[in-house]
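so my prof wants the structure for this chain in the tokens format not the other one, which i didnt know existed until like an hour ago. anyway here's the sequence
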Amino acid sequence: MDETKFLTRQFEANRAHLRAVAYRMLGSLSEAEDAVQETWLKLSRAEVEGVANLGGWLTTVVARVCLDHLRRRRSRREDPLEVGDGPELPAGPEADPEQEVALADSVGLALLVVLQTLAPAERVAFVLHDMFDLPFDEIAPVLGRTPATTRQLASRARRRVQGAPRTPDPDLARRRRVVDAFLAASRGGRFEDLLAVLDPGIVLRSDAAAVQAGGPGEIRGADAVARFFLGRATGARSALIDGAVGAVVAPQGRLFLALGFTIADGRITAIEAIADPDRLRRLDLAVL
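here's what i got, hopefully its the right format
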């Protein structure tokens, strides 16, 4: 069999896995597809005759590609990698918005947001070990660290991802049910269900950035707040914000808006909308 055709078949057999790894690393479907295509270019130029586990080899290559991308992103240099011509491979599926939303939901939008807050090496160690079950001695060469240091990176990332709730677990669970009910009613356009979880005296307040993005400065009363949120929370998902149950809106895993909730006696008494970039960066986010 022609070597290029053989490599193409082997690569296509691993494409879905590589895209899953890259998406969790980068939080963007289009960037993940780019990373997968770059992995193909590296494969097409490599000597892989002696590679016993090509799938594992490809996983480490796409991880290195993503690590380089994360480091460039962190240093705010977003220039694409320079790549030359290589054997053509049929392009992957287009990264349309609906596909991106479905993939974000399958991974967990809050998880994607929290992963964005990790240092590149922490993110790679956590994703490869905790999400794809790679041993630390295989992850360590990707990061240029020892297995023991890699284990520490993953552990530190895990603590960041899981967070530390400010309220006892039973209370946290009750508050989450209230917030999830609010978001579901908002997404579904169910006015009466929204009213059921809102305190009659509820106040919605937005910071200046949220107002500039189209939010209200302040709204008072359950009826008015319910009408404002009716059908609006399509992109919001619950998350742990500063140790309390809240919600995040994060297109392509980039945090755009955070909603903080004050809850008493099973109803929401106040909502704070935060969109100021500096405030968003200071939030302590974790996955519920």
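also thought this was worth mentioning. DSSP finds 13 helices and seven strands in the chain.
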